[in-house]
Amino acid sequence: MLLRSVSARRLDRHGFLGHISTEINIKLGQPWPGDPKRGLAIAAGDLEFAGELVRDPTLCWSPATGAEDWLAAWHGFAWLSDVLAVGPAAREVARKLVQSWLAEDIDSRSVVWRADVVGTRLFAWIAHFDEIAGGKDPALKRAILVSLSKQHRLLSRTAAWEPKGAAALRALKGWIAGSVALSGSGPRLAKALAALERQMSHQIFPDGGHRSRSPSVQLQVIQDLIDIRTLLRAAKIDPPAALQNTIERAAPMLRLFRHDDRRLALFNDSFEEDEVLIDLVLTRSETSGRARSHAPDSGFERLQAGKSLVIVDTGSRPPPGFDSHAHAGALSFEMSHDRERIIVNCGAYRGPKRNLERLPRASAAHSVLVVADTNSTEIRDDGILHRAPISVTCERAEHEGQQWISATHDGYRDRFGLIYTRELFLDADGDDLRGEDRLAERPGARFAVRFHLHPSIEPSLIQGQTTVALRLPSGNCWQLRASGAELSLAESIYFGSGEVRKTQQVVLSGTAAPGGTTVRWALRREPKTIGCN
């Protein structure tokens, strides 16, 4: 634990200074495009990270406000690409920010020295070295190189063991970047690459999904792996076969998570994310082919026919170490038609309001059956998942373009004596999605089958309030009919675009009956002659 508490300003006193490079050995260029609008905001002192905005803090690097995730992002310097995207004039802004950070006496116990934060900062400084150190100030260049060497020394002692989950890959990326750029190939690089292979084997399922079961984390992890491959190629070092194989397995899984609007589905703490970035990540993955339709290790199914797409969570909870932001959304699904989302989950929250952080993680924030307004997986006060379904099973069948799945979980057995089964059927044209939600065993518990609607959908009750008509922005209309439960509309919230938006949900409610309960529903696209009337 001593290594974790060593300040970069004191590394030389602990023997961590070692050799100082006089130059870096590689030129990376711009790894990923920056956002000039965000860069202008940062240059103006509007610092928005992890959903929290801090304006022009008096103590620039240690403001009185700013949660841990905010501090990690601010001190990680990944935003350098945004500032530099503003144009050549922004280089001086970037240099001054780096210079002020170097002059700061940062608390040695701060999140600033967490391995993944150090790794992110080290990679960003190396990637943008020419912009931040290429001016007419040789003293600044020297100071940056000294700091890079110190941080790399520290990282070489912490990256392989300190961080957990996807953060470990971010730390390893920084370690590898420093090994290549500052010291070249050799024993340190071999050690870092060996640690990377262990982490890839541990974190990536055989079907290519990340153990967090999060589409947003899937995107981030592929980016990090592509960055590592780019580093090695820039140094004319052949990337390990395991690295390329992992990227080739992970990219089709990212495609599984995409709706036809080119953005991501909302499972396990995910946002829609930027479609241009997703396109670029998939292009740079150097893989081709269609999205996976069946991911048994990760626990997701993709039903696609005509212009309709259904993505279903049929998996168990992420394992410990990967579940700190996971959701209680077992058997939930999302549906879109062409480029328009219809049925969604609520998404994720980033920001300082802890009550909002827990809200979208609840089962009730997902398009799924919920018993007694209780999570199918318990979420403890510290955010870690607790009691979860022990058994989650799924079967899939296809015939002449028709697709069917049946999935079951026992997350309500201990508390309510109930087993939940969901069946979904998509016809060959993609115009008819039918569902059946069943509760077996003990009667008496109240339940609600929830269908959260994208904010662009206009719902209305028709036909004596037994049917909901869903009008899409394109003018297309879908109608949802159900039997075995009472149908109603209720308010909902959508976090998927990164901001809180009001929306609505369709709710099928009832009470579990003796001998079992079955709720049948159908979501069909109506001819334009019928529409939403």
The CATH topology name of the largest domain reads Beta-galactosidase, Chain A, domain 5
Number of helices: 14
CATH architecture of the largest domain: Distorted Sandwich
- Our estimate of the beta-strand percent is 15-25%
Shape: elongated
Give the helix/strand class: alpha+beta
Mean pLDDT: 91
**Beta strand count:** 19
Low-confidence blocks of residues: 1-16
Q: How many structural domains can be distinguished in the coordinates? A: 3
Assembly type of the shown chains? single chain
Give the C-alpha Rg: 25 Å
**Spatial separation of the terminal alpha carbons:** 66 Å
Which CATH class of the largest domain is shown?
A: Mainly Beta
The biggest beta sheet, please?
Answer: 9 strands, antiparallel
Estimate the helix proportion, in percent: 25-40%
Task: Please name the defining characteristics of this protein.
533 residues; 9-stranded antiparallel β-sheet; elongated; 3 domains; Beta-galactosidase, Chain A, domain 5; 8-stranded antiparallel β-sheet; 14 helices
